[in-house]
Design goal:
The complex is a heterotetramer, with 2 copies of chain A (138 residues) and 2 copies of chain B (115 residues). Chain A is α+β, with helices and mostly antiparallel strands. Chain A has 3 helices and 5 strands. In chain B, helix 1 packs parallel to helix 2. Classes of the chains: A alpha+beta (138), B alpha/beta (115). Bound molecules: adenosine-5'-diphosphate (2 copies).
């Protein structure tokens, strides 16, 4: 059984920082380095920003729910929204040599995290599963 | 949300940003940068010393400013990047696209050497 | 309808700081002063410490659940546990002139918050309702 | 969790604490203080400059140390309280029970004036 923490905010950009503070400290507490903790926090924040921008089409009173499951060798984040169903084929980063604003969030998430899975098989909304292994404990 | 101060030094503008640059606050920086670009400001220096966090919307804002400034021959320098901010540029593979300097002195020197 | 945020941690002292960071930033974001935000954070932290020490009889994998409801004139915190039922008559601060270690948590909670209500009418566990009004907006 | 440094200055001991003092970390300070009290250390100075948060378990630990030290005529001085920590002492109405000083110099001066 994992240890579980949960954070729920309305899908408003001003609340994103609350999640960042929680995720960063949690990662540090369970043994990730500062750099790893920063990067994981960035990935979760990008995922939440994408929920606001794409699933809810902008700021919304609907919730973003983050569940953190801590296992012996990894941490798993489940990021759940109740917005528009994502078209998983469309969720992709731009080509990085094509320099233009935007199109970086998905790239950052995929670069930082070890596993990235979109699950759209919910009656309402989507869930993104992100996993990061503890180094040397894969 | 963000504390943004700007000052003119000769024909350059130095912008000091304080706070987290994220989906919430990046429109604020975008506004400041686009106003300067509107006026075809020849050199924009962005001091990131007091920015402890930047997400991809912050990076995108700087990319947009860089590209727009280039169109009229304007220059954009960024400096004093904290660890986490430096990392976002590297993860985005934009650390080579920008002119990134350790501090204001180095950024100014690079600008003056160009001219 | 209030805006709602929720935070859930296992009843382990090491996770208390995560809640403190969240509560403090939330209070500042919605307009409380630094001092008010610090004090509210202290009150919530004391309530969570009491859940660990009294409801769960020490650190536990069981959860502490905090629900924050933001209204136009106040913020309401619901702190829920699933531990031993509290005897509400026993929940009281010591006399403050009797200087001794301990017995300060309940006093701090009552001093800082405008309303403090223990609800033990749950099938399992307890809920503490804490309310703080925005100054001048009672 | 907490970073606790201690050093001896003449017959006094100065303890520097860094971090949040809460239910998680206060047992760590209690251990350090009770060891000094065990040895009947005549003067204990607690520097709280780098403590940004203290809860009632931290306050209780200091009350316990104060009372135990008094029994053998020992002295406990606390100084450099940050705003939030000062507030906890005031809310607990213990700001008059403790000898609280703005900084180390003032605390040392008070101790030497006593002797
Ligand atoms: N949570 C999501 N729901 C639906 N579509 C998404 C989601 N996240 C990303 N996408 C899609 O993936 C694309 C790439 O996302 P991203 O890399 O974050 O860059 P940007 O959002 O700036 O385009 C988006 O344009 C969008 O079409
Ligand atoms: N969540 C709780 N559940 C059950 N009893 C509680 C709870 N919180 C406080 N109490 C009771 O109230 C008393 C006073 O609590 P407090 O002021 O925090 O001081 P302390 O816990 O140090 O005694 C406790 O000793 C305990 O008997």
């Amino acid at each position: 059984m994992p240890e579980t923490l949960e954070f729920m905010i309305p899908a408003e950009p001003k609340y994103l920082k609350i999640n960042r503070l929680s995720i960063k400290l949690l990662c540090e507490l369970i043994g990730f380095s500062t750099v790893e903790s920063n990067n994981i926090t960035l990935a979760i924040d990008e995922a939440c920003s994408n929920v606001i921008r794409h699933a809810y089409n902008g700021p919304s009173k609907e919730p973003i729910h983050i569940k953190c499951n801590i296992y012996g060798n990894k941490i798993e984040f489940l990021i759940r929204d109740f917005g528009r169903k994502a078209n998983v084929d469309q969720i992709k980063s731009r080509e990085l040599d094509e320099i233009r604003p935007g199109g970086l969030g998905v790239h950052l998430i995929k670069t930082v995290m070890d596993e990235v899975m979109y699950d759209t098989n919910f009656e309402k909304g989507n869930q993104l599963k992100l996993i990061k292994h503890f180094k040397g404990r894969k | 949300m963000l504390d943004i101060q700007s000052k003119k030094v000769d024909n350059a503008v130095i912008i000091n940003i304080k706070g987290d640059v994220d989906l919430y606050s990046s429109p604020q920086i975008r506004k400041v940068l686009l106003e300067l670009i509107q006026k075809e400001s020849p050199a924009i220096f962005v001091d990131l010393q007091e920015v402890n966090y930047m997400d991809s919307s912050g990076v995108a804002t700087l990319v947009e400013a860089l590209q727009r400034a280039k169109k009229y021959g304007g220059r954009l320098f960024i400096y004093h990047l904290q660890g986490a901010v430096q990392d976002v540029f590297e993860l985005s593979r934009l650390d080579k696209v920008f002119q990134i300097y350790p501090d204001e002195t180095e950024a100014m020197k690079a600008y003056h050497d160009e001219n």
